[in-house]
Amino acid sequence: MKISLAPSGxxxxxxxxxxxxxxxxxxxxxxxxxxxxxxxxxxxxxxIGESLFDLPEKEYIRVFDEVAAMARKAxxxxxxxHAPYPSNTRDEDVIIITPRNLRLSRLSIRxxxxxxxxxxxxxxxxxxxxxxxxxxxxxxxxxxxxxAYYSALIPDLRTxxxxxxxxxxxxxxxxxxxxxxxxxxxxxxxxxxxxxxxxIAGEELFCACLDIGHCLITGDDPAAEIRTLGHRLQRxxxxxxxxxxDGHTIPYLGEVDWVSVAAALRDIGYAGPxxxxxxxxxxxxxxxxxxxxxxxSGAAAKHFRSLVCGRGE
Length: 313
Description:
- The protein has twelve helices and 14 strands.
- It is an alpha/beta fold and 313 residues long.
- It has one domain: TIM Barrel, CATH 3.20.20.150.
- The protein starts with a strand and ends in a 5-residue tail after the last helix.
């Protein structure tokens, strides 16, 4: 079973080519490549700042082809990518999906294909400040908006041979200011959306990428969520966290029960990469300690793989 890392912070400090080499030396077989590097959250949300995708088409194609070549040279598989987010402009309790949002998602699918990668994670659109568990009407509106949004991506997914992973998200309640459930926060809802979208597509173009840390934030048991998703779970975001803290750090620094998560993955026959979205771990370390930090990430990933494969405790 392959182990994978989300290397956005490492890439920012070491550059793409060296980051791939460092990941490989730490024992990682694959990575979750961050298309977010080329259109940050402020740009995705408000169009503020610069994006690679504002350049002529030949320029951003050249960049992604170079990344693909670097990955091949390092022997690094790009097993999944992450599209820019948020997927919509947040305007109080109204979801606004702009042409810019849709374009970024469509280009992410296309560039994922250029990276010879079969899966892209695209966040659902949602209102950040509404607890959808407490507002069924807002939940229904959110689902309808997302059905239209994801359905618009079907031609691109089909053309470029890429599958779209929906991710479980969380928001912040406008009244309590506490982190709370929102779009696709729970596995049962993810199953519903994925099954309906695949029915619309007439083929399996949509699947799940379960974020283990987000489960703790929304009050869900990660192991139970894994079992509910079953075959729909094709990719994962593994990282440690605790209720109220979206940690994105390596295992054993938060409150995730890694033994139970490993057992659940084993029970459903999960065969995808064990991808660690633990980019908060190496980020604080200076450039000269990035390699050591990635080595520690690799050690934790290998240990977790031994749990999934039924070896170790």
